[in-house]
Task: inverse folding
């Protein structure tokens, strides 16, 4: 005995095939939607990570700049103090040289008072002539 299945009408077969295709397309659409959602979530996470990394780098750069500015400020203060001390030393040396020169002149004047008076008179005479010509 042969068992045969009843033959279905071609329209019914096409309807069944169309239903199968519809279900396959819906399934693929859902899969694509899920994949896109996961990709968007991953992209959002990466963007958040990048933002946090950028903020951390910015904070580190700010700290480094502040530290370097402090170092430069300290170095400038040291150079200023060194320059000030050198200037003070030079003034002291100049003052000492002037005192030494003054003492030398005083000693020479005491040793030869007449010569000192004659030299002073000569310088005064010459200056008088120069000023009268103007």
Result:
């Amino acid at each position: 005995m042969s068992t045969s299945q009843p033959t279905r009408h071609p329209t019914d077969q096409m309807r069944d095939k169309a239903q199968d295709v519809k279900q396959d397309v819906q399934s693929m659409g859902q899969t694509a939607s899920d994949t896109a959602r996961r990709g968007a979530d991953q992209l959002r996470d990466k963007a958040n990570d990048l933002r946090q990394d950028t903020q951390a780098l910015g904070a580190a750069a700010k700290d480094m700049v502040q530290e370097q500015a402090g170092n430069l400020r300290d170095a400038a203060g040291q150079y200023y103090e060194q320059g000030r001390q050198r200037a003070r030393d030079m003034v002291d040396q100049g003052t000492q040289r002037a005192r030494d020169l003054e003492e030398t002149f005083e000693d020479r004047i005491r040793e030869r008072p007449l010569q000192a008076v004659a030299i002073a008179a000569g310088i005064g005479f010459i200056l008088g002539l120069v000023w009268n010509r103007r």
About this structure: The chain has a mean pLDDT of 88. The helical segments are 10-111, 113-133. The CA atoms of residues 107 and 123 lie 20 Å apart.
